[in-house]
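Example for tutorial group B:
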């Protein structure tokens, strides 16, 4: 009895839940912590299998474990949830050990129940965390793998396994076989290097996908170091970059073809920043100028063309407009050649200029051919004028020769009749009448010749004289530039329309500008300039051409036929201008400028604004 009391006291002093079962599994004894936890009496606990003491989900397994151990006498070990006095189920680790008598038979079963609820909750939380982490890793749009320090795969996420169409076990055994044969040695060498040095691994190689095709993947491996600095694991991220790599290769191929195309174009090609600074030139630019892009400056442009070119460049940079120019560029050997330069802006979606593309085409041969053609035309025109004057002179000589010859003959006859003794006045009178007749005939010939310039009525159409001025400047642009002449066009806006012959009025202005150019041939002490102006003057329009030449000619005789100050001139240009202007109902005159040169002016009748078309 004393021993039994001592045993109970000892069991009650244990903080763990302890129970004693009979050999057939009936509850025989429980310590005080058991009664306190369940809040039940020993009699109630004896019916544990039919009460809510064990969680309903765990009861069948608990009964089965006990049923297997009782006949065999084997200890049992299980985990289950038991309901406390507060109505809350907690996890317990239940261990059952048989107690045998001297004969070896089971005398009692000693049951130890350890509260593991907090551990179970921690394990559950860990499992939940691992599940969430696994779900997160499986959702990452990349293939992830973990390997040990020897490179043996420990884990691969679902995306990696699906991509490779394999299982984790298969991947562990044949990871290298999935790598393209040509890339296996590279991968091994890179891994050995990184693993030896403890450095990250960054590599692009090909790997066989689920469909059997090899695709390029980017592999980034990071070593995990322990407290001693030794590599414990490798963490890898695999990213399929095949499409990106193919796109980059396609882009590189297109860039190569585009560069080849640009380099093959028979022109000088360049690109500039939005501010106008060069940032690309093709091979032809370097070969032509003999300079690298960094060495190219405005000094490669002919000095006479720099100011005009820079002015156009600044205007384009301010307005963002496309522009073109014709100027001379110095070749590597120092020779200048003419180029036509066309510049176009490239814009972004907002319309801002992001760069300028320029193409320069060598037009030297074309310009020389055009200049030769213009020279030939000028010579032909001069020859035609000479031939015309020669023909006109021959016609005049032929027409006047007959009446003049008759005058001379009759004059001799008259003198003879007057020398008779006595003088034959009757015959002399008749001869004088003939002389007068022949004199009138000669005068008629002169009048007919003058009428030749006056009688042809021009084919009149409605014309804008400002437009004709621009046409004339376009025709004479090269000659003006070659002679270093600056043109200032001061044209009044909304100038009235005139009626006239387009070709004749254009030729009049060409003759006047030519005359101004020739007047400044020997001018070296001042700027060679010509001012073309237009303005309304009552019911007429006034056109003026002012030069800064020598201006030493008497204006009163300058329009007379055959009057010229040039050794090779015929003196017909200004006379023809007068004939054309007067045939259009206008007048023309010249005045000497106060400083230097002359101003040629002519008027033309303006068409009334209410006149019908």
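The residue assignment follows.
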């Amino acid at each position: 009895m004393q021993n039994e009391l001592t045993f109970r006291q000892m069991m009650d002093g244990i903080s763990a839940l302890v129970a004693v079962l009979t050999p057939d599994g009936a509850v025989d004894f429980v310590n005080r912590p058991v009664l306190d936890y369940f809040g039940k009496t020993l009699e109630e606990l004896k019916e544990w299998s039919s009460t809510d003491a064990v969680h309903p989900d765990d009861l069948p397994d608990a009964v089965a474990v006990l049923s297997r151990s009782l006949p065999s006498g084997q200890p049992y070990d299980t985990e289950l949830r038991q309901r406390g006095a507060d109505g809350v189920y907690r996890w317990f680790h239940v261990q059952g050990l048989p107690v045998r008598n001297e004969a070896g038979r089971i005398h009692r079963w000693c049951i130890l129940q350890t509260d593991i609820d907090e551990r179970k909750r921690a394990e559950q939380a860990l499992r939940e965390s691992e599940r969430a982490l696994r779900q997160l890793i499986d959702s990452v749009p990349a293939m992830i793998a973990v390997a040990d320090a020897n490179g043996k795969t420990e884990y691969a996420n679902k995306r990696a396994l699906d991509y490779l169409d394999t299982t984790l076990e298969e991947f562990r055994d044949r990871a290298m076989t999935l790598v393209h044969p040509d890339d296996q040695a590279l991968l091994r060498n890179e891994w050995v290097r990184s693993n030896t040095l403890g450095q990250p691994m960054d590599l692009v190689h090909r790997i066989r996908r689920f469909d059997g095709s090899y695709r390029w993947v980017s592999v980034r491996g990071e070593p995990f170091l322990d407290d001693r600095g030794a590599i414990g694991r490798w963490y890898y991220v695999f990213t399929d970059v095949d499409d990106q790599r193919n796109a980059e290769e396609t882009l590189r191929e297109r860039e190569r073809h585009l560069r080849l195309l640009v380099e093959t174009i028979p022109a000088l090609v360049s690109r500039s920043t939005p501010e106008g600074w060069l940032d690309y030139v093709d091979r032809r630019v370097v070969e032509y100028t003999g300079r690298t892009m960094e060495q190219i400056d405005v000094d490669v442009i002919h000095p006479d063309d720099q100011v005009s070119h820079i002015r156009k460049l600044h205007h384009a940079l301010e307005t963002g407009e496309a522009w073109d120019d014709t100027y001379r560029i110095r070749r590597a050997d120092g020779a200048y050649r003419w180029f036509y330069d066309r510049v176009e802006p490239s814009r972004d979606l907002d319309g801002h200029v992001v760069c300028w593309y320029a193409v320069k085409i060598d037009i030297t041969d074309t310009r020389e051919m055009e200049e030769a053609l213009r020279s030939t035309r000028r010579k032909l025109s001069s020859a035609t004028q000479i031939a015309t004057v020669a023909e006109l002179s021959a016609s005049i000589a032929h027409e006047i020769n007959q009446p003049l010859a008759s005058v001379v003959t009759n004059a001799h006859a008259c003198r003879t009749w007057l020398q008779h003794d006595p003088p034959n006045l009757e015959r002399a009178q008749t001869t004088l009448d003939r002389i007068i007749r022949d004199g009138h005939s000669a005068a008629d010939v002169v009048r007919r010749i003058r009428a030749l310039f006056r009688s042809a009525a021009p084919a009149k159409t409605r014309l804008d004289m400002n437009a004709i001025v621009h046409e004339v400047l376009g025709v004479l642009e090269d000659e003006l530039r070659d002679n270093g002449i600056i043109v200032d066009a001061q044209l009044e806006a909304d100038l009235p329309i005139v009626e006239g012959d387009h070709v004749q009025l254009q030729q009049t202005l060409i003759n006047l500008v030519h005359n101004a150019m020739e007047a400044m041939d020997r001018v070296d002490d001042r700027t060679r300039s010509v001012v073309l102006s237009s303005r309304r003057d009552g019911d007429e329009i006034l056109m003026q051409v002012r030069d800064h030449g020598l201006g030493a000619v008497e204006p009163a005789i300058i329009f007379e036929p055959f009057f010229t100050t040039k050794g090779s001139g015929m003196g017909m240009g200004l006379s023809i201008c007068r004939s054309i202007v007067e045939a259009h109902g206008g007048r023309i005159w010249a005045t000497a400028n106060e400083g230097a040169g002359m101003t040629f002016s002519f008027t033309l009748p303006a068409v009334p604004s209410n006149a019908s078309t």
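Residues 364-419 form the longest helix (56 residues). Compare this with the pattern of hydrophobic and polar residues in the output above.
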